[in-house]
């Protein structure tokens, strides 16, 4: 008779020799220790600045982050083990990078909100600058809001079908040199400066209608030149993420390829496609140079017709207000207030567009039927 002996299992409850030998079991720092250590580092660095020189938030924050990284790594290596020390070091670096990315954004939004709220009210949003002279404490941004919505709406109508169908061709049908040529030119168009797009449309408009013909449609075409490559690249990446098994399952059921793209591929990628379109829209909604050249900057009246003369937009309105800040007396003060309030309005418009896009992608997703 043969007997087998089972090896003794390492007791994980009390930190048996197996876990101790592998380095997986060790003491741990308390959960409150990292934030408490960060506070201590901040207090020490702030005290050193106050003692030896004038306090400045940026150097103090940098020294606090460096001191925290060194202290948390040394503490973890002494109490825990080298693996946890490396993990805490990398985690701290990630948090620092996140702070570097978020703090400027928060600073920008808070600055615009603080200065823009002084004039931002219902009156400012509901009237235009028609008949308002620089020295008057009057006028609003309604005509610029209308122009921005009309121009960017037309640019979206032009860009989204072209960009989406181009991406579908590249991913689903493209082969050979034509696909390579399309990909190459899309990449080149992605890096085109906005002023070049405006000059291209101005030259096109001069050839078609003669000099001096600026309107909202020309501005929309200029923005679409900038928007199309972004839509193509983002849509292309989203379509590539759709599993091939879904396409093969549709083909196995006898579904044609075009219907598979329409009924399977596009609905599956609708959330990513919507995000890409909104990113492209956010890329162009704040452009100023092409709109100055194509849509003009002299309009002060409410103009909702893209074919009827100059059309004001929020970026151009801000540009004009900033230029007027150099005027003496109350005119410069009023111009500065209008500039900050218009910047706040533009940020809110972009936020509303992002919210609408998220809601649309949520309701159109396959999980919602």
From TrEMBL:
It comes from the Bacteria. The keyword Nucleotide-binding does not apply. One of its GO terms (biological process) is phosphate ion transmembrane transport. The keyword Cell membrane applies. It is found in: Cell membrane. The chain crosses the membrane at residues 32-52, 58-80, 92-117, 144-170, 182-208, 214-232, 264-285, 339-360. Gene3D superfamilies: MetI-like. CDD domains: TM_PBP2. Keywords: Cell membrane, Membrane, Phosphate transport, Transmembrane, Transmembrane helix, Transport. GO terms for cellular component: plasma membrane. It holds the Pfam family BPD_transp_1. Coiled coil: none annotated. Residues 145-357 form the ABC transmembrane type-1 domain. It is a multi-pass membrane protein. GO terms for molecular function: phosphate transmembrane transporter activity. Belongs to the binding-protein-dependent transport system permease family. CysTW subfamily. Part of the binding-protein-dependent transport system for phosphate; probably responsible for the translocation of the substrate across the membrane. PANTHER family: PHOSPHATE TRANSPORT SYSTEM PERMEASE PROTEIN PSTA. This is Phosphate transport system permease protein PstA.
